[in-house]
Structure formats: structure tokens, C-alpha cells
UniProtKB/TrEMBL annotation:
Organism: Pleurodeles waltl
UniProt domain Integrase catalytic: residue ranges: 875-1025
Top-level lineage group: Eukaryota
Short name of one Pfam family: RVT_1
Listed GO biological process terms: DNA integration
Enzyme Commission (EC) number: 3.1.26.4
Ranges of residues in domain RNase H type-1: 586-742
Keywords: Endonuclease, Hydrolase, Nuclease, Nucleotidyltransferase, RNA-directed DNA polymerase, Transferase
Official protein name in the record: Gypsy retrotransposon integrase-like protein 1
Reverse transcriptase domain location: 183-360
């Protein structure tokens, strides 16, 4: 008896042909026909179609029959139908008597699938109606992607055997049936494993069951793969909507993914007998990511414009024939890989579809009907768990509600652990009903198009809302709302607007898709706002730096809209404080330069010796003439405290009613004095977070003196400069502070020994009596002992140098080489540091031996192989005529930082560093624009690095009037000035990290200061600064 088939759906490219109403059909590509012609089976089988045609035997291929006793079962049969011009694979039981021929009246011959969809007044429902005529397509089959087995269970350690949970008696039979079906489909198999995971059935509303395996213990012993699913919010916000839309659901997606044999045992579970999964198990933490990665890779080969989220696929087109061709290509392509689709959940060529919980139509994106039905049935919760479920439900539709965060805040307060009362009141019910009503009445939202992105900022008392639009549209894309943190609540209205702008620009930049962001705010000229222009500004300096980054972004435009100004904003005092007016230098009666210094005491690890200095004088014709110097020795304290003490010392010596200018090289002291001090005094010397500021007592004294001395101005200058009007005065203050610290350090060294060595005493006596000196003591030196019992060697042309005892010399070498101010310098640099204060016989020899034997230096420093330069270097005789640039890295990631931008002045060899997240032109431009605005750089020299040779970088530098010079490719010697500094920088950072164990970013600026203070042979033994 022939096998009877009937054709239900047919178009120009594919057809669905069924054996009967319960048959299952898989469609194969037409391209297989040529291959199958060469392998035609000789076994006879008659195939009769619904219209009475009998296919000849030469059109039947690959007949597979399994014999079980007297019963024959057809495993598969592939045949060629000339009418449909396609190859079909049919699976059906055999023998023939089990197959009945359908009467002609039962045949269902439908029109072409194309004709159905194009039929008038049925465009939105034709596809669903056509598929409804084929019950077999509503099955939930299991595919098999056997070509890509997954080794997906990397267990860190063997988990314990987990016992089986008790199962209700009424659930045992349904669970047994489900497991039998899964075993028949090849999803699970019997096993004997040392691992076991508990199984428990979950009842469905229709009284059926689904099985769940508890893999929580296995997941806790499993490494997490880096594969992540697509972000659903970003996916739905950037989705494209055209006329015809299709969503395809992959049937039993996880169970299509084959599991490697060596990864099956950890998935074992027990129910009667022990079984394990042969396919990717549900509940395993890496399953979603692995399955999504596989679907994405297949979809990229078939149709790169289609979108996927786990097992859902979305595609859209305006032309119906193109759209159906894409659907056909995806269905057949996934079938080739072994996947099947659940057509009951799929929607083909619809005007509106459901995707990721939203309804997508030509009008826009709206909440799904089932979501709105459930929203209409919400009632006030009576338990904490129901309240949490309610808040989670509302959170899904928060983008449709303006001011959602501020309106829902009272409900979230009820679930806070430290909230005093969790009682539901009538006010909470009103909030629930208001949000419920707004969600039910919410309009559809647009999705992102290719125009610019408009962001409107609306700030309130407790939070803010920003609304995103496509440029030219009035329907928003989404409403985003947030509450202010405790630190942000006291901010001025303008600062609250800047907080909202910072978050909006940062979070919505991916949504802009490379287009411009147009930010509409209630602040006029927002891009020009500075901290000095905001009255009673309360935000700290680091936050203003973050805001400045957003305000100066090149892809953002700011627009003023007075309609967005709230009542709080209008009532706020808009009086801008007068900027600090600096007089000409010769107009000041007194100019005071201050400096503080702190250095570690030799022989100690955490003890410092510090001092503050103030040099008073006048400025005449651009020349500083000092007349008084004030020094205060502070003992063990930090350099920051020493700078503050020096400022306080200068204020104490300022005269009331006299125009006085205080010049300080500490930005912390100057900024605090001019910007923060009044705010600190009003708040009891507490910052915006309520924490007591450092050095509270000293800042209180400074605040009192500031009120008494209104004619005193405090300005900042960069320290250790070679050119500038304040160089001479700052150098005098620096020298005075360091001299005081040196005196304190010598006293500390002297106090550490009870008496001088005999050798030193003999040398002093021999020098005084003009007798023979001990070995190693030069005869042209004179030796004496001070009243403080300190031995000195007077070197002609140099001056006095301390002679330490033998037991102190190793500690001095260690401090000079490994101390905070040294950064594991080389041999000559370490010797120069010691010779600035000390001398003893054999100093150079012992220092060289110590540096060569340093373990850390041997680990991080390479051999010094000198090679002749192949290109000439740009030599400058003045600072900032040429600055060398290069990137150092990538380094071990520290948070978000992986690179260091290094700049070295060709004349002074002064070093600047900036930690960077990426070595791209945009990041370099941002850092160098501040650098160029501070220093008058004439030219930059760099290698052919991508960021430094990028067109945007070259155009920016040309606009700023800075020349660019480049080394020849593959010739790092042309940039050797900065390359040598790169090596020193990495070696010093590595040494600090090995010693302290902290991150390299923490040590970066300390190493910069240390390297800039090292004597350099190329500068005649002087430091870079």
C-alpha cells in the first residue's frame, strides 16, 4: 500500500506535505537533489500524493527501514515531488496496514501561501489562519545540533551528591511520562554518575507538570563563561520597525544543543533511576549564554540584519516578497543545522508582533496586551513578597511613566530594612492606582531611527526625569527617571541639572548610534557653567571634573528651554559671585611665597620630617626682592599638612589693610581657600557627605584669618618651573623648606647613634693636628664635629657633608635607592642623592654594589644595550619647544585603566603622565587639550602610533597651533627620549607594586614626582625640574 501524502501549504519556494493529520515533515533544500540522484535506492516504495499522482521509484531516495521482529518501521524516506519542485523528508511508522488512504473529501488543499497573505482584508491574519490548518505544525518538536557539541560544564571542584526532594504522589505519573518522552527524544539517557542534582515537579495552571532540576549547587561549583546575552533594553530601544514583521520561536532551544560526553555526568539527576542530560540542560547558569552565542553565529551566516534574543528571532521588511524570502532562508537554514521552530508561538508577516514583552506595530512600541490585562487586575498587596512582586511588575513599564522614580518612592520605602513602619496606608493605595491608571492609558513609544537623539531634562526635588526623542518627533522613545542620592540632595538646582545631564549623556550615548545628542535643559548656556558661576555650590571638585567632561563632549549640543524651569529653580538665587580680581604684581605691597616639604627619616619606614616656609618680599620690574623668610619645623607629618601650615604661616605675617598676594604651589590649599572654605565654615567644616574634612582645626584658623584679611589674595602657581614670573620666589620658598627638612633629618640621624665611630674621631683629630688621615679620607678635605655631635667633611667647592656612622650607612643607601623619593633609581642617580647631604669613604663603591645586588632591580630591569641612533633627535634649548609623546602599555588592567599617556619635555626632561582607559585619539585629545591650555607647547613629537597619527588628532593640534613631528616607521630610536622614560616608569611602578601590593594607578603620580626629582646625567647631574 502506498504512503499517502497531502500538500497543505505551497508557494514558489517551499511546501508542507503531510502523511496525515498527525504526520511530521521536515523540509530539505532543493540543492540536495543532484547529490541524491547518484544515490537513488533500489528498494520499491510507492508514494501517492493527495491529487492521485503516484511518484515513480526513481524519485525515492535514502529509504531507511528498521526491523523489530515482524514489524518494520520506516525511519526516514526522502523523495522528489516535481509539482512542488522540492525534496521532502517524511517520518512515519510502517507496515503499510497502519497507513490509511484518506478519502478525497478529507483532503485539505489550500491556496498558495503568497496568495493567502496578499488576500484582501486578511493581511494581518492570513499567515496565522493558514498555519492553523496544519495541526502538525503546532507540535513542539526537539531539534538536534549534533555538529557542535558543547563542553559546557567546567567544574572547579567535584560537587557533593545532592539527595532527591520528596515528590507528591499525584505528580509521579506525569513526571514519569515526561521523562519517558524526553528519553525517547534523545534529551536524557540512563547513567551511573557520582554526582546527583535534585528534581522537583512544578504544577502548571492547566494541572499539568513541568520538571525542574535544581542546579544551584552545581552552579556554585562552576566557572562562569564570559558569554553574555544581549541586553534586552538596548535591543528593544534600537529595534527597527517596518511594515511586515515576523517573530520565530526556536522549539526547545536548549535541548537542540548537543552536550559532549565528558560534560554529561555533572547534569545527572535521579527519579526512580538515575539519568543525565544529553543536551544543554535548563537551569545551568551557562546555558543561556552558550545557546545565544550559537544562535547568533548561525543567524549571522543566514541573515545578519535579523535580531535574536535567546530563542526568539525578529525580522522586518516593507516588501512582502523580500520578507517571506528571508523567513524561508532562516527556517531552512536553521533546519540544516538541526533546529526546529515552534510555529504556534511564531508570527509570520504580521503588521504587529510581540517581542521581548512589547507590542511592535507601525505606530510604535507599546505594552503588550497581556501585560495590560494583568495590570488592570492588580490589587493592594497584603504581604511583603506580594509588594516586591508588584514593584517588579511596575518596573517593567517604568519607561512609559513620567517621574516614575519619584512617584514610586513611597512604595519602595516600605521594603527598606531600616524603615520604621511597613504599614500600607490609603496614600499608598492612591499611588498604586495612579501608576496603574497611567500604565493602562500609556501611549505607544517610538523606537530609535537614524536622526539625532533629543534628551529633555526635568529635575525635581527628590529626583529627575529625562525623556528621549528622535529629532523632529513629538512621541518619546522612553521616560527615564532616577532619585538623587543622599550626597546629591543638598546640591544647588544647577548642580542637580548637571547630575541629570551626566547620567543622560553617559547612558544614552549608545542609543544615539553615532548621531549627535541634543540635550534640552532649563539652564541657559549650560556648556559654559563652572563652579565659580554657581552660587553656594556644594559638589566636590571630582564631580565637577566629571561634569566638565560631559559639558565639553564633542558629540553633544545643549539647548535652553525656559519651559523646563521648575518653581524651585526659579526661586533659587541667581547671583553669580564676583571672580577673584588679581591686581598687577607691582600693586601689591607684599608678596609671600609658601612651600611645604616632607621627607622620610633615614632608618624608619613610616616616620617623616616636614617643614613649612614663607618668603616675604616685593616685586619690582618683574624681579622678586625678598626681605624676610619664616620657617616652621613640623616634625612627623605629611607634605599636604606642611603646605597648609605654610599658608597659615603666611596669613599670620600678613598685615591688615595691606594689599598682599600669597603665591602657593599647592592646588589643594588654593582651591580650598578660594572655593570651599566658606561652604565648609557654614556646614561646620563637613563636606557634602557629612564627613569631617581633614585638618579641621587648621582650616578653622585659616577661615578666621580670611575674614580679618579681606585684602589678601591667594593664587596658585606650578612648582619647580624654569620659566615664569613666580619662579624665583617659589624656588626660594622651596629651598627654605627643604633646608629645614634636611636639618631635621640630620638631627634624627645624629640622635639614632649614641656616639661617633672611632675612625671618624681619629680622622677629625688628625685633620685638626695636620697628621696622617685614616685610609679613604682625602687630605684636601677638612673634618670637624659640630656642637650637636655631628661629624662633617668640608669638601672644597661643595661645602659641608655629614659623615654618618658605619651602622647608619646601609640604611642611608637603602633609603636613597628604595625610599619614597627614589623609585629604585640607577647607580649614578642613587650616588648623587647621597652626595647631596652625606659623604663617607667608599660611598660610590658600596652604593654600586648595593644597586647591582637589588633583587627587585634584577627582576624588572633589562640589560642596557646601547645602539647608535639612526635618526637625529629634535633638540631644544628652551622648555616646551618640543614635547615627546608615547603610549605606555597595555599594562595589567587596574579598574578601567590599561594605558599611560607619557609626555617628556626635550629640554628639561620633565615628565607628565595620564592614566587612560583606551589608547584612542579621542582620549588623547581630551587629556592634551587641558595640557595645551596650561602650557604653551610649541610642538609635539611622537611615533606612528594609531592614536597619535589619527586625522582627528592632527586636525585638533593644527587648530590649536601646535606643530606635529613623527619618527620614521619601525624606528623607535627616533622617539628615544620618551621611550627611555617609559622604561623607567614601568620599572619604578613595578617596584612599587611588588613592595606594597597596591594597584599601579595608586603609585602613578608618586612615581612621576620621584622621577622628576631624580638627578640626570644628561642635565649635568641636576634634576628635571
Amino acid at each position: 500500500m502506498p504512503v499517502v501524502l497531502r500538500t497543505l501549504l505551497r508557494n514558489k519556494k517551499w511546501a508542507v506535505t503531510l502523511l496525515d493529520s498527525a504526520a511530521e515533515v521536515t523540509i530539505c533544500r532543493q540543492s540536495l537533489k543532484d547529490h541524491l540522484d547518484a544515490t537513488a535506492t533500489s528498494d520499491y516504495i510507492a508514494v501517492e500524493t493527495a491529487d492521485g499522482r503516484v511518484l515513480p521509484p526513481d524519485r525515492v531516495y535514502d529509504l531507511t527501514i528498521q526491523i523489530e521482529g515482524d514489524v518494520e518501521r520506516i525511519i526516514s524516506v526522502i523523495f522528489w515531488d516535481e509539482l512542488t519542485s522540492d525534496i521532502l523528508l517524511a517520518e512515519r511508522d510502517w507496515p503499510p496496514e497502519h497507513v490509511r488512504k484518506l478519502p478525497p473529501g478529507e483532503d485539505v488543499i489550500l491556496p498558495s501561501f503568497f496568495d493567502l497573505v496578499l488576500e484582501a482584508d486578511k493581511k494581518a491574519y492570513a499567515a496565522e489562519w493558514a498555519l492553523a490548518q496544519a495541526p502538525a505544525l503546532y507540535r513542539n518538536p526537539v531539534g538536534w545540533d549534533k555538529d557542535s557539541p558543547c563542553h559546557v560544564i567546567p567544574v572547579r571542584s567535584t560537587p557533593h551528591l545532592q539527595p532527591q526532594y520528596p515528590v507528591k504522589h499525584e505528580a509521579k505519573a506525569p513526571v514519569t511520562e515526561i521523562l519517558s518522552q524526553l528519553e525517547y527524544q534523545g534529551v536524557i539517557e540512563p547513567c551511573t554518575s557520582a554526582m546527583n542534582n535534585p528534581l522537583f515537579p512544578v504544577a502548571k495552571p492547566d494541572h499539568s507538570y513541568r520538571i525542574v532540576v535544581d542546579y544551584r549547587h552545581l552552579n556554585s561549583h562552576t566557572r562562569t563563561y564570559a558569554i553574555q546575552n544581549s541586553h534586552s533594553t538596548a535591543l528593544i530601544n534600537n529595534i527597527v520597525r517596518k511594515k511586515n514583521k515576523t517573530t520565530l520561536d526556536i522549539s526547545n532551544g536548549f535541548f537542540c544543543q548537543n552536550l559532549a560526553h565528558d560534560s554529561r555526568d555533572p547534569s545527572a539527576f535521579s527519579f526512580g533511576s538515575q539519568k543525565r542530560f544529553c543536551r544543554l540542560p535548563q537551569g545551568y547558569k551557562n546555558s543561556p549564554g552558550l545557546f545565544s552565542a550559537r544562535v547568533t553565529s548561525i543567524l549571522h551566516e543566514l541573515d545578519s540584519d535579523a535580531l535574536s534574543y535567546v530563542d526568539d528571532i525578529y525580522l522586518t521588511d516593507n516588501a512582502l516578497d523580500i520578507h517571506l524570502a528571508r523567513v524561508d532562508r532562516i527556517i531552512l537554514g536553521f533546519a540544516d543545522f538541526g533546529y526546529k521552530f515552534n510555529f504556534k508561538k511564531s508570527k509570520i508577516a504580521f503588521l504587529s508582533v510581540l517581542f521581548l514583552g512589547y507590542e511592535l506595530s507601525n505606530e510604535g512600541k507599546s505594552l503588550a496586551p497581556h501585560f495590560l490585562e494583568k495590570c488592570a487586575q492588580l490589587q493592594p498587596p497584603n504581604t511583603l513578597k506580594k509588594l516586591q512582586s508588584l514593584l517588579g511588575f511596575f518596573n517593567f513599564g517604568r519607561t512609559y511613566i513620567p517621574d516614575y522614580a519619584e512617584r514610586i518612592r513611597p512604595l519602595y520605602e516600605l521594603i527598606q530594612p531600616n524603615f520604621s513602619s511597613r504599614r500600607w496606608t490609603i496614600e499608598h493605595t492612591h499611588i498604586l492606582r495612579d501608576i496603574q491608571r497611567d500604565m493602562l492609558e500609556a501611549r505607544h513609544l517610538y523606537t530609535r531611527d537614524k536622526t539625532n537623539l533629543v534628551v529633555r531634562i526635568i529635575a525635581g526635588a527628590y529626583g529627575f526625569t529625562y525623556v528621549t526623542f528622535n529629532e523632529g518627533d513629538t512621541v518619546p522613545i522612553a521616560y527615564k527617571s532616577h532619585l538623587y542620592s543622599n550626597a546629591e540632595k543638598p546640591f544647588a538646582p544647577t548642580e542637580k541639572i548637571l547630575t541629570a545631564v551626566q547620567m543622560a549623556v553617559t547612558k544614552e550615548r549608545p542609543l544615539a548610534q553615532g548621531k549627535r545628542n541634543i540635550v534640552v535643559s532649563p539652564v541657559p548656556a549650560l556648556e559654559a557653567v563652572t563652579k565659580a558661576s554657581v552660587p553656594n555650590a556644594k559638589a566636590l571638585h571630582p564631580r565637577w571634573i566629571q561634569w566638565a567632561t560631559s559639558l565639553t563632549a564633542t558629540d553633544v549640543d545643549y539647548v535652553f528651554d525656559p519651559r523646563l524651569q521648575t518653581q524651585e529653580f526659579l526661586q533659587y538665587e541667581q547671583e553669580y559671585p564676583a571672580p577673584l580680581h588679581i591686581l598687577p604684581l607691582d600693586s601689591y605691597n607684599t608678596i609671600i611665597y609658601t612651600d611645604g616639604s616632607a621627607q622620610p627619616v633615614v632608618g624608619t619606614k613610616h616616620q617623616y620630617s616636614a617643614a613649612g616656609a614663607a618668603v616675604c618680599g616685593i616685586m619690582e620690574d618683574g624681579v622678586f626682592h625678598p626681605h624676610n623668610t619664616y620657617i616652621q619645623t613640623l616634625g612627623d607629618c605629611t607634605a599636604q599638612l606642611a603646605e597648609l601650615k605654610a599658608l597659615l604661616l603666611a596669613l599670620k605675617h600678613s598685615e591688615t589693610g595691606t594689599q598682599t598676594l600669597i603665591v602657593c604651589d599647592s592646588y589643594y590649599c588654593v582651591q580650598s581657600y578660594n572655593e570651599y572654605l566658606n561652604h565648609w565654615k557654614l556646614n561646620g567644616f563637613r563636606d557634602s557627605k557629612g564627613n569631617t574634612i581633614k585638618h579641621k582645626i587648621l582650616w578653622g584658623r585659616v577661615a578666621d584669618l580670611k575674614d580679618k584679611l579681606p585684602s589678601v589674595h591667594v593664587v596658585h602657581t606650578l612648582g619647580h618651573q624654569r620659566v615664569g614670573i613666580h619662579v624665583a620666589g617659589n624656588a626660594l620658598a622651596d629651598e627654605a623648606a627643604k633646608t629645614s627638612v634636611a636639618m631635621a633629618s640630620v638631627a634624627a640621624v645624629t640622635r639614632s647613634g649614641t656616639r661617633l665611630d672611632n675612625e671618624i674621631l681619629v680622622a677629625v683629630k688628625a685633620s685638626a693636628a695636620d697628621k696622617t688621615l685614616p685610609k679613604g679620607y682625602p687630605t684636601n678635605y677638612t673634618y670637624h664635629i659640630s656642637a650637636q655631635n655631628v661629624a662633617y667633611a668640608t669638601i672644597p667647592g661643595v661645602g659641608d657633608r655629614v659623615i654618618p656612622n658605619e651602622g647608619q650607612r646601609l640604611e642611608l643607601i637603602t633609603a636613597a635607592h628604595e625610599g619614597v623619593a627614589s623609585a629604585h633609581a640607577g647607580i649614578q642617580a642613587t650616588i648623587t642623592i647621597l652626595q647631596q647631604r652625606y659623604w663617607w669613604p667608599g660611598l660610590c663603591r658600596r652604593t654600586k654594589q648595593y644597586v647591582l645586588c637589588c633583587d627587585i632591580c634584577q627582576q624588572i630591569k633589562g640589560s642596557n644595550i646601547k645602539r647608535p641612533l639612526q635618526t637625529s633627535l629634535l633638540v631644544s634649548d628652551k622648555p616646551l619647544q618640543c614635547v615627546y609623546l608615547d603610549h605606555c602599555g597595555p599594562l595589567q588592567p587596574d579598574g578601567a585603566y590599561k594605558y599611560i599617556l607619557v609626555a617628556v619635555d626635550s629640554c628639561s626632561r620633565f615628565l607628565w603622565v595620564w592614566p587612560q582607559r583606551s589608547a584612542d585619539a579621542r582620549t588623547v585629545i581630551k587629556d592634551l587639550l587641558i595640557f595645551i591650555g596650561t602650557y604653551a607647547v610649541a610642538a609635539f613629537h611622537s611615533d606612528q602610533g594609531p592614536a597619535l597619527a589619527f586625522k582627528a588628532f592632527r586636525d585638533t593640534m593644527r587648530t590649536m597651533g601646535v606643530e606635529l613631528h613623527y619618527s620614521s616607521p619601525y624606528h623607535p630610536e627616533g622617539n628615544s627620549v620618551v621611550e627611555r622614560r617609559n622604561r623607567d616608569l614601568k620599572q619604578s611602578l613595578t617596584a612599587r607594586v611588588l613592595r606594597s601590593g597596591r594597584s599601579w594607578v595608586h603609585h602613578l603620580y608618586g612615581v612621576q614626582r620621584a622621577l622628576n626629582n631624580l638627578p640626570r646625567r644628561s642635565l649635568g647631574g641636576k634634576v628635571s625640574i
